[in-house]
Amino acid sequence: MNDLTPQVERKTRVSVCMATYKGEQFVVEQLESILAQLGADDEVIVVDDASPDRTASVVASINDPRVRLVRAVDNKGYVRTFEHAVGLSRGDYIFLSDQDDVWIPGRVEEMLKALSSHMVVASNFDMHGSAPRPWIPRLRASDSARHLANIFGILVGYRAYYGCGMAFRRDALAYFTPVPAYVPESHDLWLAICGNVAGSIAHLDEATIYRRIHDENQTPAGFRSLPKIIAARVMMVRLIVEALSRRRRLAKA
């Protein structure tokens, strides 16, 4: 090959989108578990949400060209940070990833199989170490096509859609982005609503990650106050209406 040989741009298959904040303790172990499953042309986009610790420096020290680090100047919260990472992605398949879990070997290929026929895939998780699992029931593959029941489960709060266990095809971006401005949390439930409203979501019976619970988790833990529960349910209703609106718009396009 010489300088006159046409360069063929390789296509990115998988983009892993990670939002980091105060994650220096576990992010290397997580990234290693991810990179072990990716191809040479895949990518991991890490957007650091203005961490006050060494998180960005730790990520920058990883010597792998597939890792793309973006340092945010201002802290915007994990929903906007994930949205930023997704907006930078180039892959046909977009995986969401927390900064502190561990991917189980085979996760990528198992989820890609589901994405060959569905717009969104959601898997289960097991707990890292001996931590107790949250009470919320596991997802069941047999419920994948029960879209109304799944949406009701989101409203009630018993469908275990966690972003760390989810991925979607690039054609789902028209549903997912922009994430409505009134969403300060639960981007994963928004993605699940989009997949169910579109009638194209797959549940995996298998766990594909080991989830780690610790003091710096960004996802709220434990039970919430009644006002917060009501506010969250109102937001979910708004998101269902928004997803239906986007489906109608896309059908006309």
If you had to describe this structure to a student in words, what would you say it looks like?
The protein has helices at residues 27-35, 55-60, 78-88, 107-115, 147-156, 173-176, 187-197, 226-252; strands at 14-20, 43-48, 67-71, 93-97, 102-103, 120-127, 166-169, 201-211. By secondary structure, the protein is of the alpha/beta class. It has one domain (14-252): Alpha-Beta Complex (Spore Coat Polysaccharide Biosynthesis Protein SpsA, Chain A), CATH 3.90.550.
Give the helix/strand layout.
Layout: E1 14-20, H1 27-35, E2 43-48, H2 55-60, E3 67-71, H3 78-88, E4 93-97, E5 102-103, H4 107-115, E6 120-127, H5 147-156, E7 166-169, H6 173-176, H7 187-197, E8 201-211, H8 226-252
Parallel strand pairs: 1-2, 1-4, 2-3, 6-8
Antiparallel strand pairs: 4-7, 5-8, 6-7
Helix pairs in contact: 5-7, 5-8, 7-8
> Termini distance?
44 Å
State the secondary-structure class.
alpha/beta
CATH class term: Alpha Beta
Named CATH topology: Spore Coat Polysaccharide Biosynthesis Protein SpsA, Chain A
Helix content: 25-40%
Count of DSSP H/I helices: 8
Shape, per Cα inertia axes: globular
Average pLDDT metric = 92
What order do the SSEs take from the amino end to the carboxyl end, as H and E? EHEHEHEEHEHEHHEH
Q: What is the makeup of the main sheet?
A: 8 strands, mixed
